[in-house]
Design brief:
Helix content: 25-40%
Number of strands: 39
Number of helices: 21
Distance between the termini: 38 Å
Largest sheet: 8 strands, parallel
Radius of gyration: 31 Å
Mean pLDDT: 95
Strand content: 15-25%
Structural class: alpha/beta
């Protein structure tokens, strides 16, 4: 195995060095008490003291803190900029900018050695006798402007004011007692320097909302965005850019951002602090008006200079480089030399305007889409420029730094997506991102030291509240949230928003609905997505979603009234809307299948589709009416009726079929595993095989092809076959449950049967079984020609406990095992590599296929693919290359949110075997394993996990 990288060794060392800080950071979570504590500082009636010369943003946020105090305690503290006095002063200030803080330091009343000179640190401390006549004070000191701001907003959150109080109407609980415990509390330095969001694809939702509520996407709206980012301890923003120009649409925008301490950037294709819209508006004033450096270099340089000069006094992270106009690739055959010239000229402008070396102005070069190809082909930028690596727009990071490379002065960052417009299809409507996948991918980014900048595309911002919180929390300190803590994170987030009583259940709902939604984006769903006939897949999807709706509504019914608006936005609406959409497509699929089979029920399902389609609009309208219409337009994104990657202009209901129904009742029969119906079909009606260890149930559906009612009877049934009803009446359809009495069934393999009769009509059903003697059977047992194993259900974890990490809940059906999550590794196979072992028992022999279902991780090493190995019974291992050995193209992988890799094996004997899967490279994220003989029933999620011998 390769040795741990220098990057990883540094992190291990830093973990030990900062152990004391970690203790403080954990303590920081509960420094506010809602009951009296000895020597604590009371917060119910305080005064706020700030130096008038401190940053304007500090004063702005102090006013928010003032408001938060009033909401929580009922008392609005006054703000003073004079000598400290009064019984309970709260002293707020920035080191070096506040005389109040500096005097406390000089007089040795306040020790700021833990935070001074550090990036965005704050200290909250109860200080005894800070000045003559003052018994004690609460001090909030920042190492810099944002440090002070973060300190104030941290106190607000600890008092019970959610960062989402304004943006999601999260209520604040009023309290009679409120104290800060004695002691000193510090934040530590954020692990990722720049942490922010990108508002994008903002039409029609956020755009129409902002125009109605604020008159546009302007400084009034952005002030709320700035404060949200700061409350979440972020510091960076790419502003909305669909026909928007942040700096020109409202000149107050950049001024206000700078006051608040928000570092502004522009998106990956908008260089030199100029929006794409600005070029469309002013192109005639710059040379020949062409966005082409070969034909209009002087015009473009002037355009960039004007933009940079305009914003030079603000805190910016300047995007450099160039893409084609409209976020398209540059002209085919663009030379790397030309792009390097563009960057050099842009840096010359920066140096000329600032009068300082370009290296003193933070810059970022986004390796987005084809721009990464230029980098891979050898293009380089100066070492002080941050290289912003990107995902594939679907949450899979394309490239990470090579630990063997020399560290860059400008470091590396990540551009990530919760929302996207483009192929294989837009996804903009609801949150479809599992925080578990964000953790798995961004943990890789952290381990590979891409920590200078993390920015995520959040679309309309709403309804991405949950993953935004996680992304920014994780960016602050990735070491504070490990894989085992992800479910606790969900519950803690729910607790902060809705209180403790239902937090566990709400956390589970958040985890579950995002798991379901991530299986396939809502915009990519179709009537063909889930199987109607195999494994009860489609029905289980609908049933599981509707169970989730029941749980969500049960909590909603019990929540106090003041929580209901927030709960609807953050939990109930996405759950109900997602459940409804999935049921809509399954109902459409049933309508079409039933029409082909001649079921009279097809017409009822045509009506059901119409009802569900209307319900989608009703749910949207309900969202738009909550909180007295505060969020009108926000959920107006179209999501039904896609025919290609781009969204439809209007919703389009799926096409349904109606049939002519016979006047008299007529029997039809359908079975699990087939789309055929009898007696019309000439095929044999044969159920999937029953296996004694699996002890599964199957079904037969008796349906009416006409009007009225008919009677049926079950006849000629083997005594060991159990049928839920052996006679009855059918008006539309009836499902019979089929099971086996294994005590009466013959041993070994055999086939029984029974018949369903209506008058003179009879349909014979074959029932194949395999009655096994448990004996020495070990592990997962084959049934219906397959063995299915969830990756998390291994029987042994060998060689290195850290080699494979369980990521709970990540995946389409279970959880995920990911390789080398804590140690960047690109190695070779060895018997000493970490492995997972799975015991199984096969009933088929000869050539078989083993299929690995993995998260669609990309080859971020860019070294020919990510690898793992497998062996059966410790025979020679087979090396599997996730990227070279799959037949799935990229669009298939991200659309299915799974990459399938298939290999062949030969099992000469029936019996017990052990499969071992060996870790070789970081990034392998294994969800499921299927061993099969021949073809098995098709399904989107794959067959269910096999049963094990008891």
């Amino acid at each position: 195995m390769p040795k741990p990288s220098i990057i990883n060794l540094q992190k291990v060392c830093s973990l030990f060095l900062c152990f004391g800080f970690l203790q403080i950071a954990f303590a920081q979570k509960d420094y506010v008490s809602f009951e009296k504590v000895e020597k604590a500082f009371p917060l119910n009636s305080v005064r706020l003291f700030l130096d008038s010369e401190d940053h304007e943003g500090v004063h702005l946020v102090a006013e928010d803190l003032q408001t938060d105090f009033k909401i929580v305690t009922g008392n609005e503290p006054e703000i003073y900029s004079e000598e400290i006095n009064g019984k309970y002063p709260v002293i707020i200030g920035t080191i070096g900018k506040s005389k109040l803080i500096d005097e406390l330091i000089t007089s040795a009343k306040l020790d700021v050695s833990e935070i001074e000179g550090k990036w965005e640190n704050f200290l909250i401390e109860v200080v005894e006798n800070p000045s003559p006549g003052v018994e004690k004070a609460l001090v909030i000191a920042g190492s810099d402007k944002r440090g002070t701001i973060f300190g104030m907003f941290d106190l607000s959150e600890k008092m019970g004011v959610s960062p989402w109080h304004w943006w999601a109407d999260v209520p604040v609980k009023k309290v009679e007692q409120l104290y800060v415990k004695p002691g000193s509390y510090t934040s530590g330095t954020p692990k990722v320097k720049y942490r922010g969001i990108f508002i994008n694809d903002e039409e029609p939702g956020l755009g129409n909302w902002a125009r109605e509520k604020f008159g546009g996407i302007n400084s009034k709206m952005y002030e709320q965005v700035f404060k949200l980012i700061l409350r979440l301890k972020g510091n960076y923003l790419w502003p909305a850019m669909w026909g928007k120009a942040f700096n020109e649409d409202d000149p107050k925008n950049p001024v206000l951002a700078d006051k608040y301490g928000i570092v502004m950037g522009t998106s990956h294709h908008e260089p030199m602090v100029r929006a794409q819209k600005e070029w469309g508006t002013h192109r005639e004033n710059y040379g020949n008006g062409e966005w082409d450096y070969q034909t209009n270099a002087e015009g473009l340089r002037d355009f960039w200079r004007d933009g940079f000069e305009r914003n030079q006094d603000f805190e910016n992270l300047v995007t450099i480089g160039m893409r084609g106009e409209g976020d398209e690739p540059m002209t085919e055959g663009t030379a790397i030399e030309l792009l390097e010239t563009i960057v050099a000229d842009q840096r010359e402008i920066i140096a000329d305007v600032t009068g300082k070396p370009a290296s003193e102005t933070p810059q970022v070069w986004a390796l987005y889409k084809e721009v990464q190809d230029y980098y891979d082909q050898g293009m380089r930028v100066p070492d002080d420029v941050t290289l912003l690596l990107a995902d594939d727009n679907w949450g899979n990071i394309r490239k990470l730094p090579d630990p063997a490379d020399k560290a860059r002065e400008g470091g590396y960052g990540i551009y990530y997506h919760f929302d996207y417009v483009g192929g294989p299809r837009n996804y903009k409507w609801l949150n479809t991102t599992q925080i578990e996948r964000v953790w798995e991918q961004m943990n890789l980014a952290y381990q590979y030291d891409a920590t200078e900048l993390w920015v995520v595309n959040v679309g309309d911002l709403k309804p991405m509240e949950f993953p935004i919180s996680f992304f920014l929390d994780f960016a602050w300190d990735p070491e504070a949230i490990d894989a085992n803590g992800l479910q606790d994170y969900s519950k803690d987030w729910a607790k902060k928003l809705f209180g403790d009583e239902y937090s566990s259940k709400i956390g589970e709902i958040l985890d579950t609905y995002t798991k379901y939604n991530s299986r396939r984006k809502p915009e990519m769903l179709s009537p063909e997505t889930y199987s109607l006939v195999n494994y009860n897949e489609a029905e289980n999807v609908v049933k599981d979603y509707n169970k989730l709706v029941e749980k969500a509504e049960e909590i909603n019914n019990r929540l106090p009234a003041e929580y209901k608006d927030a709960y609807y936005q953050l939990v109930l609406f996405p759950v109900k809307a997602s459940a409804n959409l999935n049921e809509l497509y399954v109902a459409t699929a049933k309508n079409r299948l039933y029409a082909e089979q001649g079921r009279a029920l097809a017409n009822s399902y045509a009506e059901k589709v119409k009802e569900l389609y209307s319900k989608d609009s009703a749910l949207t309208e309900e969202y738009h009416n909550i909180a007295d219409g505060k969020w009108n337009h926000m959920m107006s994104q179209t999501h039904i009726g896609y025919t290609y990657w781009q969204q439809p202009e209007e919703q389009v209901m799926p096409e349904v079929k109606t049939i002519e129904v016979a006047k008299k009742p007529e029997m039809g029969v359908a079975i699990e595993g087939s789309k055929e119906s009898w007696p019309a079909s000439n095929e044999t009606a044969r159920l999937p095989e029953f296996t004694s260890i699996a002890d599964q149930k199957s079904y037969v559906e008796i349906f009416n092809k006409g009007k009225g009612t008919f009677d049926f009877k079950v006849k000629k049934k083997d005594k060991w076959i159990q049928v839920s009803e052996e006679s009855g009446s059918v008006s539309d359809q009836k499902r019979l449950s089929i099971s086996i009495d294994w005590n009466k069934a013959p041993k070994g393999k055999s086939t029984g049967n029974f018949s369903i009769q209506q008058g003179r009509k009879s349909v014979k059903i074959e029932v194949p079984i395999h009655n096994l003697s448990p004996g020495n059977i070990k592990g997962f047992v084959e049934s219906n020609n397959y063995i299915g194993i969830e990756a998390a259900n291994y029987s042994e974890k060998g060689n290195d406990e850290q080699g494979w990490t369980l990521v709970p809940n990540l995946g389409k059906t279970g959880s995920t095992m990911t390789a080398f999550a804590k140690t960047p590794t690109h190695g070779e196979w060895s018997k000493d590599n970490p492995y997972l072992a799975y015991d199984f028992h096969n009933l088929s022999t000869g050539k078989m296929k083993i299929e690995f279902l993995l998260s669609p991780t990309l080859d971020f090493h860019n070294k020919g693919g990510l690898r793992f190995a497998y062996s059966i019974d410790d025979k020679e291992p087979q090396i599997i290359n996730l990227h070279q050995d799959t037949k799935d193209d990229w669009g298939t992988s991200v659309g299915n949110n799974i990459t399938r890799v298939t290999s062949e094996l030969n099992l000469e004997e029936k019996g017990n075997h052990t499969l071992k899967i060996w870790a070789i490279d970081s990034g392998i994220a294994l969800q499921k394993i299927i061993i099969r003989k021949g073809e098995i029933g098709e399904s989107y999620l794959g067959p269910p996990e096999s049963k094990t011998a008891k």
